Amino acid sequence: MKGQILFVIWRESIEALLLIGIIYAWIKQHIDSRNGLRYLWGGVVIGISCSILLALLIYGVFNVLNDTGQSLFMIFMELSACVLIVQMVYWMNSHSHSMKSDIVSGLAQKTEKRNWWGVTFIVAIAIAREGSEIVVFLSGFIMSLNANNAVDFFAEVAGGIVIAALTLYLFSLINHHVPWRVFFNVTGVLLLFLAVSLLLKGAEESINLLLEYDYSIPDFLYLPAWNTTGFIDDSGIVGNLLNAFFGYRSQPIWLSVIVFVSYWVVIAALFVRRKKHA
């Protein structure tokens, strides 16, 4: 859905660009900065290449499967993306306040003996991690790419990267007013809603697949819980936006309601537990 791609690229690109910016600034202060920067950009290229290879692998696997295989693969990727988003937000929530110092500390250890390959490894792994998250988050779009939607897809990808670079620049100017921790917390909440949206899609596709193969399922699970179409229709502009980012359904089935509530109960318990042990 339009907007969802741009948001994911924007949010994840900021993390990658922030990482590169921190390492770049650190290397520029090093006596051997010219040599170090070559290893930095080498790590960026390796990380991006790994992400592209993963995207091609997902696209290739999807296109050799039959209809049932494609449905199962889509469900698996949606559920995996949901788990990965939650894990990433949890990690960022725990480490955003010390991310810069952790990166610089790790780089210092790698370059005590001019081990620039260590810098390449750190950057490549970090960029590949961010890139793989983007690929998994957008796997549904990647698997449905064709001549009709490819231009829009790549336009949103490019737009997300450009907006991320602009956001990073603006925050570098006003970060004493709006701390990065606040930024990551706010966008983290939006990502948690995106995760539940993917989880709902996976759950709904799962029950549809089971019904298609005549599995016995309690009737109430696929019956509509309520109807708010007259208030906000999820096929309209506003409803479609709420559907993409917050998992809104104007006519949700009971399975979706149960999954939605259960998800937030688990998320609340997870983050409350982390806060207690912080």
TrEMBL record:
Membrane-spanning residues: 6-27, 39-59, 71-91, 116-141, 153-171, 183-200, 253-272
Pfam families found in the cross-reference section: FTR1
Compartments in which it is found: Membrane
Membrane protein topology class: Multi-pass membrane protein
Major localisation: membrane
Cross-referenced InterPro entries: FTR1/Fip1/EfeU
Keywords, ordered alphabetically: Membrane, Transmembrane, Transmembrane helix
Family per record: Belongs to the oxidase-dependent Fe transporter (OFeT) (TC 9.A.10.1) family.
Protein name in the entry: FTR1 family protein
Organism: Photobacterium piscicola
Lineage, broadest ranks: Bacteria, Pseudomonadati, Pseudomonadota, Gammaproteobacteria, Vibrionales
